[in-house]
Specification:
Chain lengths: 557, 590
């Protein structure tokens, strides 16, 4: 993988220190810069796993039809298939690809003569999967017209759904429990779970339980408080629930679809696996469902939602899409890339070698051998300033221990294991990055270098650069500064070459050009304030090739 | 330096859009959500009334999610195995384990709300279906993510076994959940789970998966794809066939076989075999296959060879008809077993197309895995093998629980047994389990002379384990047995098969949906309460800065039957989450 830099989001965690890079949990704590948001109110990075998400609308991903919330609400009482496209969009029940409406083949006669065909094709029309070739005629769903399936297929499915045995049974169960719970609710003073603010949220099932337990329950009685009285125990204890008569019970139709005898026989005689519907095709049903593939129905297209994202801490909107399905634009978008420097990393030596290798047809083995144990490599970090102000940046490597080093044990082996397998050197002084400006302002790059914004620091920086050509500021142009670093890889090192890097940048928060800020905070008009913002990154340079392997590869080359 | 919060100004964004942003007032996190104007807005625009709760049944392998008031979940999906039966020993490793669990649970829950249910978590109360043995740290993780990251207003933890009973219109019954990691029997009386009587066994889905894998490695056949060069289509399949390479049996392939090819046959007519094997008192089906966690013990070998000798002598033991050599010593007892199972199976062999192992890229296209019919039919025998005190059979687990309940509840519970869980979806499973219950009660007397399982273990006392349950046999009813045995004529037994035809795997979810729509369902924990507890925890962590306190403390506000006194002044239960199920002979029947 090419070298890259990802950014840490602490996700409101108390600890802002990211996990060590070799931990599995590390990778989900870091994100590419373009996926991150920035909350101005909290002055903090936010990511997709911590922002709060709100639904601001629904649309069909296939036909892009907008579903107005009013019509969705209208379905509330019917409780049938909301969130599904009500138009002609269906999914294949086998592979979940979108189904197309296709006409029947032109009727062919045995003598090869074809009858004249209308422009839209011949009825009956059916739904067809271009991917797995499933078609709805197999399950007897066909249409007379290719359009307005909402009036036909959906109606067919709708009817099927309305009379779905699980829904009917469910309603019956509700009717069964409701009167019982009402009665139980009346005696809910016994309810032990009643809490201060939930006097009308008593848990009726628990209430029922406790009222039942208030009677004498043999064996449990000794645990129950004083209400216990002598009970009737002739046929064993019973609860007060009347018997429920199922609408359709498990053993009706001999248990077909619930693993009963017919299913066992079907399985016993099975000739090919493909006759059985896969679990995915059956399991979202809560009811007895046929094992046979030939019994499955097309699925209506689930709607997608349009999402707004807010800061989880202060509730400010971070991103808000426009209300049109076709639009990919956003009304509001506070992306982190507008606030914190973009950092790219490259390894010139490796890149050169990759370039020369590209000519030859050497395969992945050579590619993999680019970073070898026991050597040192320079690398470049290019930092781009998105702000209208120049910034001073300081980089630090986060101290780290290798994985699995047991605590407390200090024999030589573990001492060795605890030593990091590589050492990273970064410029140890702060360095400047010029302000972002429109392109025409950069006619003379030399001017930018002469800009003495951060004068006092500059001498030190140049001395530093002279001392070591690898480590330090290498180049400054426009709002980009390239600094060099170096990594020394231990002889026995192996695995991923990556490290956590803390980035701090200081900027002048008061700038006369920033009219908005001036308006917002007039009192700070003439007080130059320096503000520092820090964030963590992980720098991945590539995979280290252990020494033995790299030697053999060298011979090959 | 000033401490006034100032933000770096962005450059590229047109400034207008920024100022469209929200008013500057900060909503304090936590308790104020109900008062915030935003809450009102989402309420108005939400698809349903917000009173419909989100019902989540998060298994260790399969999740079911949807809205209360609906008869089926909106989605059912597989997740990576999220937690197992054991945890890492090192604190540092466990911390990483916790982090990974939280990351994974967070990703799943966010996807549930944002991609599947398309609803705003801040306005949805949540019913979490809770399996009684769900580790407390997992529960804590769910609560932390739901309250902290998703900011849901409340969570109700509802016992899965009780919810299953609701889905069949009852509040009393003995519920067995045959899931992935464990099978768990829990008696419930009048909506109250009798947790001290809970019994569990590791004979469940994961064990069946491991067992199937072993059977297929030993007895399956693999045909590599034909090589295009040699025109090998003419080579007969028999000579191309090889043992099944391990790489072919991926988790997905095994799962597919388990859910699409397997079923459960009738009880073995063991008496005939026992005569042949000459070990009338011993269950010959005890398997100890590689790769299983337990190394075969010496006694296993001796028993195996005993089986083998007698089988070979009397029935002309024939090696499985495949060009296979070099069966290891412990495999020979499996050959005997295979022969016996074969005699008891009429299921067809099946062929499944599989991806060839990467190391065998000789041919083109897919390889073929031949699954013997008897493996399809008898693979699940592993769940019905009893006699081991550490791993009771699924039927014994039910009966052991029944033995534990107060005497006067036994009959009521015996006639309202409910079987739930994903593994119970195997065709034939429930009716087989029903027969096994009857058989175990009937045969506990005859097995009194059972020899010891291991030489190093004491011989179990000669007692008639289920004698006290024998009078209950005519009343026994498995509510959701799809193919009930002939009725015995009692009122209790008449309930067999009379439960509504909900699928066993979905019953807890359906019950959760029902509980939600009836505005009930378990102890409700509000976010205010959680946040308060979190604040207290932070305070105490600050005061006591020792390393242990820095670690995540499981919050006391979480309802947890393993350490909370039950409602109605029931006795506090010991903290041990998995009660030991050593038969307490003295107590039983007293
Ligand atoms: Zn985050
Ligand atoms: Zn559509
Ligand atoms: Zn398809
Ligand atoms: Zn914020």
């Amino acid at each position: 993988m090419a070298p890259n830099v990802s950014y840490h989001c602490p996700c409101l965690s108390d600890s802002t220190v990211p996990p060590p890079p070799h931990h599995l949990s590390s990778s989900s704590s870091f994100h590419p810069l373009h996926e991150l948001f920035f909350c101005e109110e909290c002055d903090a990075i936010r990511c997709n796993t911590c922002v709060s998400v709100e639904v601001s609308g629904y649309y069909c991903p296939n036909c892009l039809f907008e579903v107005p919330s009013a019509s969705v609400r209208a379905e509330k009482n019917r409780r049938v298939l909301p969130y599904l496209c009500a138009r002609n969009c269906f999914l294949c029940p086998c592979c979940r690809n979108t189904l197309s409406v296709v006409p029947s083949d032109p009727p062919e006669t045995d003598d090869g003569r074809t009858l004249p065909v209308s422009a839209v094709g011949e009825p009956p029309f059916f739904l067809y999967c271009n991917y797995c070739r499933w078609d709805s005629a197999e399950v007897d769903i066909t249409f007379e017209k290719p359009t307005g399936l909402a009036g036909t297929c959906t109606a067919q499915l709708q009817k099927f759904e309305d009379s779905a045995p699980d829904s009917l049974e469910f309603e019956r169960l509700k009717e069964h429990f409701e009167p019982f719970l009402l009665r139980a609710g009346a005696t809910s003073s016994l309810n032990p779970t009643t809490s201060a603010h939930s006097h009308h949220h008593v848990n009726p099932v628990t209430a029922a339980a406790s009222s039942a337990l208030a009677r004498d329950i043999p064996g449990v009685a000794k645990y129950t408080p004083a209400q216990s009285t002598s009970g009737r125990r002739s046929k064993g204890a019973r609860d007060e629930m009347p018997e429920y008569k199922a609408r359709v019970d498990a053993s009706s139709s001999k248990g077909a679809g619930l693993g009963g005898e017919p299913d066992v026989e079907f399985m016993r005689r099975l000739e090919t696996v493909s006759e059985v519907a896969s679990l995915e095709q059956r399991w979202s049903s809560s009811w007895a469902v046929s094992l046979r593939l030939s019994d499955i129905k097309p699925l209506r297209m689930p709607l997608h939602s349009r999402k707004s994202k807010r800061c989880p801490s202060c509730r400010h909107i971070l991103i808000k899409p426009e209300q049109k399905a076709q639009s990919v634009r956003y009304k509001i978008k506070l992306v982190a890339a507008n606030y914190i420097p973009a950092i790219t990393v490259s390894m010139p030596a490796v890149a050169e070698r990759r370039a020369t290798l590209n000519g030859q047809a050497t395969a992945s083995a050579a590619e993999a051998s680019l970073i070898q144990a026991g050597r040192s490599y320079p690398f470049h970090l290019a930092l781009t300033n998105p702000l209208y102000d120049p910034v001073q940046v300081r980089l630090q490597v986060q101290r780290q221990l290798p994985a699995g080093a047991p605590r407390g044990a200090d024999d030589e082996g573990t001492e060795k294991a605890r030593r990091p397998p590589f050492a990273v050197t970064l410029p140890n002084t702060a360095f400047p990055i010029a302000a972002f400006a429109e392109a025409w302002e950069y006619e003379d790059d030399e001017d930018m270098l002469d800009d003495d914004e951060f004068g006092p620091e500059r001498g030190a920086r140049e001395k530093d650069a002279r001392k070591n050509k690898t480590v330090g500021v290498l180049e400054r142009r426009a709002n980009v500064t390239i600094v060099g670093g170096e990594v020394l890889i231990g002889k026995d090192a192996r695995g991923e070459l990556k490290f956590n890097m803390l980035v701090s940048y200081t900027y002048r928060s008061d700038d006369p050009l920033a009219e908005d800020d001036v308006k917002a905070t007039p009192s700070r008009r003439n007080v130059p304030e320096m503000k520092t913002f820090s964030f963590c990154t992980i720098v991945s340079l590539g995979t280290i090739v252990p020494r033995e392997e790299s030697r053999s590869v060298n011979v090959d080359l | 330096m000033s401490t006034v919060p100032v933000t770096p100004r962005h450059a590229r964004q047109p400034s207008a859009s920024v100022h469209v942003a929200t008013p500057a007032s900060r909503v304090p996190s936590g308790s104020m959500v109900h008062a915030s104007p935003h809450y009102q807005t989402t309420r108005r625009h939400s698809l349903y009334g917000t009173e419909d709760r989100v019902v989540i049944d998060p298994g260790s392998r399969i999740w079911k999610v949807g809205f209360s008031g609906e008869g089926r979940p909106r989605d059912v999906f597989l997740v990576d195995s999220l937690w197992g039966l054991s945890r890492a020993a090192e604190i540092a490793d466990r911390e990483e384990e916790d982090r990974l669990l939280e990351i994974y649970v967070r990703a799943q829950l966010r996807s549930v709300f944002h991609d599947i249910l398309l609803t705003d978590p801040k306005s949805r109360k949540v019913i979490l279906v809770e399996h009684p043995l769900l580790p407390v740290y997992v529960k804590d993780t769910f609560a932390r993510v739901l309250f902290g990251n998703m900011q849901v207003p409340s969570i109700s933890f509802a016992p899965s076994h009780l919810l299953s009973l609701l889905s069949v219109g009852r509040i009393t019954g003995l519920v067995l959940d045959c899931g992935n990691l464990e099978s768990t029997a829990l008696p419930i009386f009048s909506a109250r789970p009798l947790f001290p009587q809970l019994r569990t066994t590791p004979l469940a889905g994961a064990r069946l998966t491991a067992h199937l894998r072993a059977l297929l490695l030993l007895f399956g056949t693999y045909l590599p794809p034909p090589t295009s060069l040699s025109g090998s289509a003419s080579i007969p399949a028999a000579t191309r066939s090889t043992r099944v390479p391990q790489e072919v049996l991926t988790d997905a392939v095994i799962e597919d076989i388990k859910t699409r090819c397997c079923f459960v046959g009738d009880p073995l007519d063991a008496s005939a075999d026992m005569q042949i094997l000459g070990t009338p008192s011993e269950d010959p089906m005890d398997l100890d296959l590689p790769p299983s966690e337990r190394a075969p013990s010496e006694s296993d070998f001796s028993r195996v060879s005993h089986d083998l000798d007698s089988t070979a002598a009397s029935s002309g033991f024939s090696v499985v008809s495949r060009s296979q050599v070099g069966l290891a010593r412990n495999e020979s007892h499996l050959e005997a077993l295979a022969n016996m199972y074969k005699r008891h199976s009429t299921a067809t062999d099946l062929q499944l197309k599989v991806t060839p192992p990467a190391t065998q890229q000789t041919g083109t296209g897919l390889g073929t895995l031949v699954i013997p019919g008897w493996v399809r039919e008898r693979g699940a025998e592993v769940l019905f093998e009893g006699g081991d005190i550490d791993e009771t059979s699924v039927a014994e687990t039910i009966l052991d629980s029944l033995l534990k309940v107060p005497v006067d509840l036994r009959r009521t519970l015996a006639c309202s047994i409910l079987i739930t869980g994903g593994t119970a979806m195997l065709p034939g499973f429930i009716q087989r389990l029903h027969s096994e219950l009857l058989r175990a009660i009937a045969s506990s007397a005859s097995s009194a002379g059972r020899p010891p399982m291991r030489p190093d273990r004491p011989r179990p006392p000669a007692y008639d384990r289920y004698a006290v349950l024998r009078p209950l046999v005519p009343h026994l009813a498995v509510l959701n047995n799809p193919s009930p045995p002939p009725p015995t004529g009692t009122r209790g037994n008449a309930q067999t098969g009379k439960a509504p035809a909900f699928a066993p795997a979905t019953m807890p979810w359906v019950g959760g949906s029902l509980a939600g729509s009836l505005k009930t369902g378990g102890v409700e924990l509000s976010r205010e309460k959680w946040d308060e507890a979190a604040e207290e925890e932070r305070q105490s962590a600050r005061e006591d800065a020792s390393e242990d306190m820095q670690r995540r403390v499981i919050r006391n506000v979480l309802p947890d039957w393993t350490r909370m006194p039950l409602p109605s002044g029931a006795p506090p239960v010991t903290r041990a989450p998995a009660p030991v199920h050593i038969p307490e002979t003295a107590a039983v029947g007293a």
